[in-house]
Design goal:
Keywords: Membrane, Transferase, Transmembrane, Transmembrane helix. Its main location: membrane. The chain is an all-alpha fold. Helix content is 78%, strand content 0%.
Amino acid sequence: MDSRSRWDPGRVYSANKLRAVMRLIRIEHTIFSLPFAYVGIALSGYACTPKIVLLSTLAVFGLRSASMAFNNIADFEIDRKNPRTSARPLISGALSTKDAWTVVAIGSLFYFLSALLLNLYAFAFSPILYVIAMSYPYAKRLHPFPHIHLGLALGFVVFGGAVAASGGMAHSFYKVIISVPWLYLLGVTFWVAGFDTIYSIMDLEFDRKEGLGSIPALIGPKGAVFASSLFYAFSILSFSLAIRSYALGMISTASTLFSAFLMLMQIILVSSNSEKIPLAFNLNLVVGVIVSVGVLIEKAMGT
């Protein structure tokens, strides 16, 4: 068994229940996705208040927690069969299915209540984002492109942030929709699709055996790396166009270039040695933060 078949970011390393819950919801992924909402707020063109930031943070935390917990519930039988995922919270017994459903319920409550307290437009759109996030585990049962579905689930965090800011001031759905930085949303979507395609190479043989859809299972590891490089290229193109469209400057440009370098490094790593996928995965976590921080710094400086 090589390192790829053993490595799993959702693995439980402690019997402590709180730590098991943190693994269930992948707390670090939730934290790294928060900047997407903040960029949505910053680029919406509407004023930002502490209330908007706080409620947006709670909404993202609630939705991500609920969707990650539900993903573990929906994939229980799949994860149980896969040796790589056999140490996840529900499979290992660190948490019960009841525990996971409790997390889903609490996370969903936080999400919808936060959306309601933000504004009526945020609440009106909240079911759409909820369905996108919660339906992700079924994507691989239906088609070979679940990576794009995951990308949309995270990309629409940008949408949520923009609506959180614009919904209280705009007076029509049209004004709310045009407040969304769609180019940035696309950049996040393609970036996530790219790294999830690489990540799925680890389960290529298992997915083929179980009839689950993924790009690696469809076209093999080399084809998957090529597909990932295309996703990354579209991501950088989208971020670059966003810089021009939203009149951003040198800081955003530098952060985008550095993110492009990190994406290229991931492709080089997995092209030369597929056992370096865990390293590429961990390297990738900071990409979204780097791009987002560049935008946020510029907006904070008033550029």
